User: What shape does this take?
Amino acid sequence: MQATSEREEGVGKAKAKQKVALSSPSEGASGLTGMWRIKKPLMDQGKCNKCLICWLYCPEAAITRDKENRVSINYEFCKGCGICGEVCPSKAIVIVKEV
Amino acid sequence: MRSARAEIVAAYPITPQTQIIEKLAEFIAKGEMRARYIRVESEHSAMAACISAEACGARSFTATSSHGLLYMSELIFWAGMGRFPVTMAVVNRALAPPWSIWNEHTDILTQRDAGWVIMMCENAQEAYDTAVQAFKIAEDERVTQPVMYGLDAFTLSHTAENVDPLDQRDVDGFLPPLDPSKLAVYMDTDHPITFGNLLGPDMMMEFRHKVMEGMSAATGVIEEVARDYANVSGRPQTGLLEDYRCNDAEVAVVSIGASSGDAKDAVDQLRDEGVRAGMVKLRVIRPFPAERLREKLGTIKAVAVVDRDYSYGFGGILAGDTMATLKRGVARYIAGLGGRDISVADFRGMMMDSLKASEEGNEPPEVWWNLKEVP
Assistant: This one.
């Protein structure tokens, strides 16, 4: 589709061509939101059963998984909402006060 | 809308707009118009639906009036600043209190800073012609801004008039299907984008400036589209404004909407009596046709602006724009608020009043025309 190819150019290359402010979804599009955090999730890899529920529920996609489904928390973007700690069935994530 | 092949109609009923959307619902239900009618719970949602549909490449239309327009107001800015080529009919009606269903132009003029092209129609034929042209203007790559057009309550919305619609093939040639590649925002799931995200002070002005450029470009595009449409329809079209016998005029009235027809009759009568009268009908209010207005009115001694609206604490809205454009005072008449008739005799009276003030060397007055004592 012609529209798609022009859009790709518009978004990717020439920002000046944009008629309105648009962005492509990307990591850290809103800056280092981890700065907002007052509580912090801590993960105990020993208790984790790799169910990926925390990875699924994290509203900021700040939990990443590797090829072995080992999850880790990206503290640069984690806002400390605590949802991962709530949903973890094996209590592998605890939320501790940070500031 | 049927002629223009609108694909989405999303609207909420309000007097006196109801007949427009009822007729469209009927066309769609009978299969005479290939479009989806989205029933919404408010005007706010109606505009949200139109914006979303445009973002998916569908030509979209809504209609509202008065309180509905103001309820929609937040989304009107989303459409204007987001540059979605929605079009909308606004049946002009006074805002309460006191409750009123009758004509006044204050409703549409409250939206004049929202990045929408704003047009006004004089009669049913012009309403049809403008409805078709509105999409052409809005979707033009140089513009990419939404268009709303005003129709006077009851005078236009409920008065039966003959309308000569274009042959469908002619409309299709004039107004091809919406080309998504020309949209400012086009949602494509294969290439996701975020629209409406946070933008800091570093770039905000630059995108506002683009809206300004789109609106400025509309000035030329509106005239171009009117010329093209005149060729297709065989009917002369008013571009930005209509000059009625202004050429050698000593007094001219500035008017918008349906009562412009009465203003023309008043001009004819005064001319017959030896007064060199003229009229300018503004078809477009945003972008304000400043250059054309200066051309027409620059040398005319007495200018009378008739406002069927008011900016409380300032004055008539069109008079303010006209004075800023001409860089001089004009006589300002506030008339017809809440649906009071502005007759041919009223237009004659206002023109003669402004001419008298000018001949006597007085400051042009502001007059609330035909004001009565409140008991």
About this structure: The first strand of chain B starts at residue 8 and ends at 11. The domain at 8-233 of chain B is CATH 3.40.50.970 (Rossmann fold). DSSP finds twelve helices and 14 strands in chain B.
